[in-house]
Design a protein that fits this description.
Blueprint: E1 2-6, E2 20-24, H1 28-38, H2 42-46, E3 57-61, E4 64-65, E5 81-86
Parallel strand pairs: 1-5
Antiparallel strand pairs: 1-2, 3-4, 3-5
Length: 91
């Protein structure tokens, strides 16, 4: 099923400037891997060495943080939007 992935500004240099990419996937993990397959380099920025999400990368489906759902195994529905949101720090 087709879902959209919103790409943050920090990763758009890897997507040719595109801010939203459509991919075929049934889970968040599949969508992010499909994004990396289409735009190499994205995966190493969002996944850690064990294949999980990096600590400073937040991913949302329908405004819900996937860490409070099933993580990368969170199921997505046709037409849903996945948002990659880098953590912001500062003072």
């Amino acid at each position: 099923m087709s879902v959209s992935v919103r790409v943050p500004t920090q990763l758009r240099n890897l997507t040719g400037g595109e801010g939203q990419i459509s991919v075929e996937a049934a889970t968040v993990g599949e969508a992010l891997k499909a994004l990396d397959a289409a735009h190499p380099g994205v995966g190493e920025r969002i996944f850690d060495e064990s294949g999980g999400l990096r600590r400073f990368v937040n991913v949302f489906v329908a405004d819900e943080d996937v860490r409070f759902q099933q993580g990368l195994d969170t199921v997505v529905q046709e037409g849903q939007t996945i948002s990659i949101v880098p953590a912001v720090a500062g003072g």
